[in-house]
Amino acid sequence: MGIAGGFPAMKVHRGDVVVVRTVLGFDFGKLVEGKFLRRPELDYNCDRQLLAFANLTARSETADWHARILQPRPGAKPPKDSKAHTDCYVASSDKVVDDPDHVFYRDVAASFPEIHAVETEAVGAGASVRLVQSQRAISLLVVRGVSDEPGTKEEAGTASRKECTLRRRGGRRIRLKPARTPSERRKPSG
Q: Yes or no: is domain 2-181 CATH 3.40.50.1580?
């Protein structure tokens, strides 16, 4: 369980829940001829049986998962307005994506246009599970509550909640800077 930034273009909004099929790591890759080439061997597929159970629970008329939502939904909407998106793709990195139009993230997103949300922990969890799986059977299912929508006007207080969450989890915010031209790179800073 954790939080993620959802993309309205994929019909994922604040207050929704994302159940992850595949974690797409985008920290590592290479830039070739101006394009980001990702390393799919770093992606992680969640357990299919757990994913199927989550899908059944989300679609069930009798399993009222909405009743378990204890925090107020953004915009004071009732919990029943929350949607569960199952079988989703989530991009994971140690970078917080506040600007999906940034040239770096735009190149990453072009490599996998199916991204429903972005977050900062699942790629590490997937790597850890993969390591343990070499010794014994273990499964992973990644579930995220959508706390914001990168690139949209944020509601008051969202930025401070993100900072608090990052501090609590030991994460860090990385602001991606615009690419510098070769002549700017040669100039001494100061």
A: yes
